[in-house]
User: Which sequence fits this backbone?
């Protein structure tokens, strides 16, 4: 199970956090995307966990500043070295460490102008997860801790097929 490659989709609920003028603002954001796990995921080598997420939602805290509705998107990803903690026939518990990144681009109307917020950040992440195999398919649930300009948690559920 640990040395099998899987590809699929999933969703994540991330308590996305940003700093504005020295204050932290957070909002739970739903993200959707692609997930690849196993050896040879991005290159030959050890089993990795690769995630690429996107969200077209805007953080709820933008309403505190906006004089209208904001538009934009969030891209989010990480690459993590997965290590097995417990492995049974069809069950796998893992932990891992990796690097993560975010790219946000939002246009927020403030009074008579539009604030164009665009930011790229790189950080670290750590995770614990559980996977259950059903034939050639895998259901994974993970909790991840992200640390870049600020720290926050995310929860991921994915359904993947062997490839």
Assistant:
């Amino acid at each position: 199970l640990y040395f099998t490659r899987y590809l699929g989709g999933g969703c994540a609920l991330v308590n996305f956090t940003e700093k504005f003028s020295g204050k932290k603002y957070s909002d739970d954001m739903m993200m959707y995307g692609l997930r690849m796990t196993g050896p040879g995921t991005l290159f030959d080598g050890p089993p990795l966990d690769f995630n690429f997420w996107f969200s077209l939602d805007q953080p709820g805290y933008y309403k505190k500043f906006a004089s209208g509705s904001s538009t934009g998107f969030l891209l989010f990803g990480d690459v993590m070295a997965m290590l097995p903690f417990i492995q049974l026939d069809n069950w796998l518990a893992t932990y891992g460490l990796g690097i993560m990144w975010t790219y946000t681009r939002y246009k927020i109307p403030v009074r008579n102008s539009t604030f164009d917020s665009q930011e790229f950040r790189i950080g670290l992440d750590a995770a614990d997860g559980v996977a259950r195999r059903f034939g050639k398919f895998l259901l994974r649930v993970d909790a991840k801790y992200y640390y870049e300009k600020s720290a926050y948690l995310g929860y991921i559920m994915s359904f993947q097929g062997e490839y």
